[in-house]
Specification:
The structure holds 3 protein chains of 3 kinds. By secondary structure, chain B is of the alpha/beta class. Chain B is built from 18 helices and 20 strands. In chain B, α16 links the parallel β17 and β18. Classes of the chains: A mainly alpha, B alpha/beta, C mainly alpha. Chains B and C meet through α2 of B and α8, α9 and α10 of C.
Chain lengths: ~325, ~500, ~325
Amino acid sequence: MTGTPTAAAPTGRHIPDRLVAPAARALKSWESLLLAVAVAIFIANSFASPYFLDPWNLSDASFNFTEKALIAFAMAMLIIAGDIDLSVASIIALASTAMGAAMVAGASTPLLVATGIGTGLLAGAFNGLLVARFALPSIVVTIGTMSLFRGLSFIVLGDKAYTGYPPAFSWFGQGYVWWVFSFELALFAAMAVLFAILLHRTNFGRAVYAIGNNATAARFSGLRVGRVRFILFLLTGLMSGIAAICLTARLGSTRPSIATGWELEVVTMVVLGGVSILGGSGSIPGVVIAALVMGLVTFGLGLLNVPGIVMSIIIGLLLISVIALPRLWARLRRT
Amino acid sequence: MPPVLSLRGISKSFPGVRALNDVQLDLFAGKVTALVGENGAGKSTIVKILTGIYQPDAGTIAVDGRATGFATAQAAAAAGVTAIHQETVLFDELTVAENIFIGHAPRNRFGLIDRAAMVVGARRLLASIHAELDPQVRLRELGIASRHLVAIARALSIDARVVIMDEPTAALSHTEIQELYALVETLKAQGKAILFISHKFDEIFRIADRYTVFRDGQFIAAGGMHEVSETQLVQMMVGRAVDQIFPKRPARIGKPMLTVAGYSHPTEFEDIGFTLHQGEILGFYGLVGAGRSELMQALFGITRPSRGACKVGDTVRVIRSTAEAVAAGIVYVPEDRGRQGTVKGLPIFQNITLPSLSRTSRAGFLRLADEFRLARDYTRRLDLRAAALDQDVALLSGGNQQKVVIAKWLATKPRVIILDEPTKGIDIGSKAAVHDFMSELAAAGLAVIMVSSEIPEVLGMSDRVIVMREGRISAEFSGAAMTPENLVRAAVGIAPAGSADAA
Amino acid sequence: MTALLKSREVILALAIALLLVLIASRFPAFVTPGNLARVFTDTSPLIILALGQMAVILTKCIDLSVAANLALCGMVAALANGAGLPLPLILLAALALGAALGAINGLLVWKLEIPSIVVTLGTMTVFRGIIFVLTDGRWINAHQMSDGFKAFPRTVLLGLPVMGWIALVAVAGFAVLVNRTPLGRALFAVGGNPHAAVYTGISVGRTQFAAFVISGAMAGFTGYLWVARYAVAYVDIAGGFELDVVAACVIGGIAIAGGAGSVAGAVMGALFLGIVKNALPVIGVSPFWQMAISGAAILVAIAFNARNSRPQGRIILKSAEHRT
C-alpha cells in the first residue's frame, strides 16, 4: 500500500456504497434473460395452438410444474448453500406410502396431511443428520437415501397400490381456490413469496449465501454452519412432504414408483433458474421463471401432441443450451 | 556472464488493473536473485508469466539470449523453468516417485510407465539433495518440509535451469529453513538460476546474490546484494523512508479480561494457562507447528479442548462454537485469509456485517441501510481502499482483505481480539498500518493476543511474550527478559548456555 | 500389516467374503463355482460401467448419462443387427457410438466448463429421447434378433460365458490403464489437485474429456451386451442404472471428491451389489427389498470411507504420537 501517510489517523476515505444501481444490474441478469425466453415461448405457443390461451387449459397445465416447483424452492436454497438433495422424489414416495397406510387405517384428512408433512420432515432430518452432523458429502448420502426411502416404499407396497383417498383430501390436488386458480397454484405462489423473503431478506438467507461461497470462512465468522445446513435439509424434506400431499391427492393413489425421476427435473428447474450448481449464487425469482418456462414448454408441446419423452429431450436440450450459450458466446468473443 | 533468462519490457493488464508495466528481470546461472516488492507490486504476476500460466501483453522473454515465449505451462517446463510455491503443488494420492516424474515418467517398451526405473531415478534425485525419503510412500503421509524436498527433486528431474521459490520458508520450522538454505547452495553449485521471493529481509540478505525491486507493477532497480542496505531496499520498495515499523505505544494495562487455565487437547496442546489484561498485547512466539494456532482456534470455538476452563471478564465460559466465542467477546483474525478470513463472492459490506447481523437486522430481517452504515463506519476507520462497498471482496488486495477481516470483528465490539500472524505476506507499508492499528486497539481497552513468528515484530509490539513448544508453554517473558536469544531458546528447547544464531 | 488391514479394499473384500459365508450357511448351492460364475456374469455390465464411472469420478466429475448411453447404443446395435450388419461391425459400432456420446459430454465439460452433473443430467434425457425418435417407441424383441447376435455373450468358454470374460478383460485393461499409463496417473492428479496438475503440464479439461470418452465407450459396448443378453431393446432399458453404477463406485471406496480410488474397489463395489441382488431370491427375501438394502449399503460405505480418510488434526504433542 503506497502513499499512506504515517502521520495522524486518516480522516476517512469516502467509498461509495454502490457503483452500479441495483436496477441496472438486474436488467443484465440471468433472470431477465430467462424472462425474455419465457415471454418468447408464451408468444410462440399462442401462435402454435388455438387452445393455448384458454384460461382453464392454462390452469390445467400449471399442475405439471407446481408440485416440482414447491420442492425446487427449497432445493435452490440447499444448492446455493453448496449441498444437494437427490432423495426428494423418494421422500415423496415414502410420504405418500405413509399417508396411504394412514388412510387405510382410517385416518382423517388433517391427520393424513400431518403424516405427509411429518414423514417429509423426518426424512429431511435423517439426511440433515448425516450431512450436517457427520459431515458426509451430500451427493452420495442422498443417492443412498434415495434408494433407501423409495426402497422402504417398495417393501411396504411391492407392486400394489393404495387407492381410495377421501374427497376432502383430494381437494389438495384437485381443488380450486378461486375461478381457475387451483389450490396448488395458490400454494405455489404463496411459497414463492415466502421463500423469496427467506432467501433474500433474512439473516438466514444471508447465511445460506455465505456458506455456499465459503463454508470455512462462514464458520470462522461465527455462523452456525451445521445448524443452517440441517435446517435446509429439513426444508427440502418438508417441501417434498407437501408436494407428496398435493401429488397423491391429485393422482388419487399411491404407488412406490410415484414421482420417479422427479429429483432430476427439480434440479433442472433450479439450474435453469440461474442457480449455480457449485453453490453461492442464484435467486428464487429465477426459479419461479424457470418453473414457468418448463411448464409452458411442456404444455405447449402437449397441445401439439408431442410425446412425453420427446418433451424430455427438449427440456434436456434447453438446460444445456441455456447454460452453454452464454459461455460459448464469451469464448468466441475472447478469440 | 549473460543471463540464463531475461525479460524486457513485459507488460500485463487485467480488467481495471495494470499488473505489470514495462518490467525487466534477469536471472543468472548459479546465482540467487531476490525479487523484492510489496503486495500488489506484480511479483506473483511475473511468476505466472515465467511459468507459462499467463501470457504477457507486451515484451520479450529470452532464454540464453534467444527470444522465446512460454505459451503453456508445459512449454515453460520444457524450457527448464519450474516453481516451488508456499503450498504444495503436488498430489497426495500419488507416491513420491510418481510425483517427481508426473508428466514425464520413464516408459518401457510397450509405452507403459516403467515403475522400477522411476523408483531408481527418484532415489538418485533424492540422494543428490540429501533427502531421506522413501520413493514408494504416498505424498499425503509426508509433512510440508518433506513435500518441498519432493518438489525440488521434481525440479531437478525435469532438468530445470531456473528454479523459482515463492515464499518457500513460510511454513517451515527453524531447522527446516536451514536445510532449505543448504539446498539452495546445492542448486547454485549445480548451475541453476534461482529466483527467490520473500518478505523476510534477513533471509534475502543471507542467501541472495542479486536483487530486483518491483513497485506498483514497475521495475525500480536491480543490482548486487552487497551494494545495497536494508534501508535502501525498503525505500525502493515503498518509495519513501519508513522510520518506524513498530510504533511504541503507551501501555495502560487494566484488569484481567481473559483467564485460561488447564486448557488441553488430546493431540494439539496441553496444560495451557495464562492471563490477559485489558490494554495489553500478549505475543505468542514459537516455531511453526508449536500449537499456537491450534490453541487460538480452541479459544475461538473452532475445536474443543478436552479439559480446561476459561474466564472472560468475570464470567466463566464454556466455548463450544464460534458463535459462542463471539457472544463471549472473543474474536479471531485467522492466518489463512483466503480460506478462513473473507467470504469471496460476497460483497465487502456483507463480509463486514456477517457476524453482526443480529445488530443490523430486525427480527431476523435484513436492513441494508443499517448494514451499509456499519460498513461505512469501519471501512473509514481502517482506511480501506476499494471502488465500492458492494464490490466482491475477492477483488481487493491482500492487505485490504485483511482490513475487511479486522473491520468485521471490530464491528462486533469484542473484548478479546486474537490476531494470528496478522502481517504475514503483507508488504511493509501495510504492516506498519496494522501495527499502528493494534496499538490503537490496545489503547482503547481491548485485550490483544498476537501470534507471530517474526521476532522483531513480537518483541516490538508485545508487552509480554509467551513461547510455546510442542504444544506446551515453554516460557513467559516480560520486560528486560524479552530478548531474541531467550525467545529462540525457549522455542527450540535448548538450555540457556547454548550458542545458536539469533533468528 | 495394520496398514494393509485398514485398507478400504481389504475391508470390502472381507465384507463380501462374510456375506458369501452367511448365504452359504443356509444355501450352500449359492457358492458353487457354477453359480458364482453366473452371478459374476450377471454383474458384468455393472462392473464394466463402474470401471468407466471410476475414471470419471477420479477427475472430480460424474456421468449420469451412462444408462441412457447404454440404452441408445444397445438399440442401435439391435437395429444394425436387423439391417444385417455382421457382428464384429456391430461391436465396433456400439463402442464407437458410446465413445462419441461420451465425447459430447466431455467436450461440454472441457471446452465450455459446464459442471458435469448439469451436462450429464441434460444428455441423459436427450440420449434416451433419441431412442424414441429412432424407433417411434417400438420394441425390438428376441425373434427379431439374429441367433449369432444373441448367442455371443452367452457362449461359454472354460466355464465362464463370454460376457464374464469381457468383464475380466475390462478389469485387466483398466488396471493397466490406471496404474501404468500416464493418462491413468493423470486421472488421479487431476482429481487430487487440479491446480497442481496445470503446473505439471497436465490439461485438466483434456483428462476429463478422456475420462468421459472412456466411460461412454464402456457404456456403449455394454449396450450391445445388455440387449443381446436380455434379447430385447426398447426406450426404458437400464432405467435408473446410472445410480447403481455410482453406488457401486461409492461402496467401492471411490471418493466422490475425486483423486482417490482403485480398480479393485470399483469391482468389489459392483460385486457386492450383484451378490445382494442375486442372493435375495435365493434366501427368500422379496426382490422389493433390494433397493432399500442397496441404499443402506451405500450409507454404510460412505460412513466408513469418511472415517478412514478423515484428515487428522495435527499431532503436536510428543506424548500423543511421533510426527513424521
